[in-house]
Amino acid sequence: MARMTLMSGPERRRRWRADERREILIDAFSPGAVVADVARRYDVSTSLIYKWRREVLAARDENGFVPAVVVDGAGVARPAVARDPAIVVELPHGARVTISADAAAALVTATLRALR
Predict the structure, then answer these.
(1) Domains of the chain: total
(2) How far apart are CA 14 and CA 43, in angstroms?
(3) What does pLDDT average to over the chain?
């Protein structure tokens, strides 16, 4: 059965809160997700999801910062290993991110996603 949303009053457009947008974007661009499926689930246009993503990426590029990601178990102390880094990502303006070979997989994944 089809679902219908009735908008009453002078406002004809839905307003999405920042936390709702963030949740939709996380769902839409998580590994294996299909944006069209997520759009249907939240009853939002796929073009609006892509617009929100462009806005987030543009804002991130303006200030050069990305949100921090906290990973469970990241606070566990590990012995220092004197090895060459396994991954080196060179960013514009000379910034560099190095990831050692013994870094936790979840931490590496979160770091690389944040750099995307």
Answers:
(1) 2
(2) 11
(3) 78
Element housing 27 (H / E): helix 18-28
Q: Are 49 and 35 in contact (CB under 8 A)?
A: yes
| pTM of the predicted model as reported, rounded to 2 decimal places | 0.47
Q: Judge whether 62 and 31 are in contact, CB under 8 Å.
A: no
Per residue in 14-69, pLDDT (tens digit) is: 888 999 999 999 999 988 899 999 999 998 999 999 999 988 888 766 666 666 67
Let me know whether 110 and 80 are in one domain. Answer: yes
Residues 57 and 93 in one domain: no
Q: What is the dihedral of CA 87, 88, 92, 95, to 10 degrees?
A: 120
Asked if 92 and 109 sit in the same domain, the reply is: yes
Beta-sheet strands, E only, within the chain: 87-90, 96-99
Q: How far apart are CA 44 and CA 5, in angstroms?
A: 11
**Contact by Cβ (8 Å): 112, 88:** no
Tell me whether residue 4 is in a domain.
Answer: no
